[in-house]
Amino acid sequence: MNEPQASMAHYVSNAPFDPFKAEKLTPEQERYYMASQIRMMWWRFRRHKLAVAAAAVILLSYFSILFTEILAPYELHSRNTDYIYAPPQKIHMFHEGSFAGPFVYGLDYKLNMDTLKREYSENLDKVQPIRFLCSGDKYRFWGLFEADFHLVCPAEGGQMFLLGTDRLGRDMASRLLYGGRISLTVGLLGIIISFVLGIVIGGLAGYFGGWVDNVIQRLIEILRSLPELPLWMALSASLPVSWSPILVYLGITIILGLLDWPGLARAVRSKLLALREEDYCAAAKLMGAKPGRIIGRHLLPNFMSHLIASATLSIPSMILGETALSFLGLGLRPPITSWGVLLAEAQNIEAVALYPWLMLPMLPVVITVLGFNFLGDGLRDAADPYD
Question: What is the dihedral of CA 108, 114, 116, 118, to 10 degrees?
Fold first, then answer.
């Protein structure tokens, strides 16, 4: 007969369970667990060094357009008729072995009768110090009031063409700064129009489905089947020649925004088709919430971070679109100055071969487009909840 086994010792504590004392979080863990979605996106974004650098460049570019008149050494339409197609001047610090501060040498030129090219040379006897926080060409700041204060100016009676001059003797550096104000804001205004249309039309298609979705999808397919550049050219050419530069600018912006929304609309539609089946969406319906409130307050915030990343990737296409149209003579036209308008002056291959600095407007376009692409990649990675 088997003897009864001895009872095993009981190791479970009879003390009341306190969930807050059972597992204490370190301050670092508590900071992480209690962080909002935006804060966690920011932490992930900071790890993307290339995106952070791109964001700094883009922010600096947009901040500079607020003070273009001050940053530019010359007024936009200031002409130096004695220095047509002058090459970029070098900044020097030492003259004849002694420190002379930042300065440029004056230019002398002669006309080459064989090539009919103006040949410039530095005159080492003309030392022209660069002035800072100085008075120079007069301008109207944002068209509001007259001023003459500049961050940098040429010497009194001297010249300073750090990026050369064009066929009318206008400073290329100043014109690049003024052109950035137009080219950069075209992308922002265009993406606002595209963003609103994409969210509204895509939201209707994704939330209601059925015949509404079918009609919108067929419209998107028709728009995406049309060749993009010829369509831009046709619509831009339809703008009246008699329009003022401001109206032409607004017209180009609206055209770019109206043609860029289908991609965003499809992204919004696909997200809403999945999210509308969630329990919180059904609960909002049962509580009597209207479709507009459900879409705006419950569905869109769940993927707003992805929409922001998509917007940053769409802005470069807007800038390239304006540049291409202006380069072809169908977009913005003088007296408006943009990077595309500046590149249109470099269409003559002979001028480019003789004066290559006329192609410099390509650099800010390339830098801006790359910057937005890197920034969009960083935001997309930061917004990915599975990263």
Answer: -20
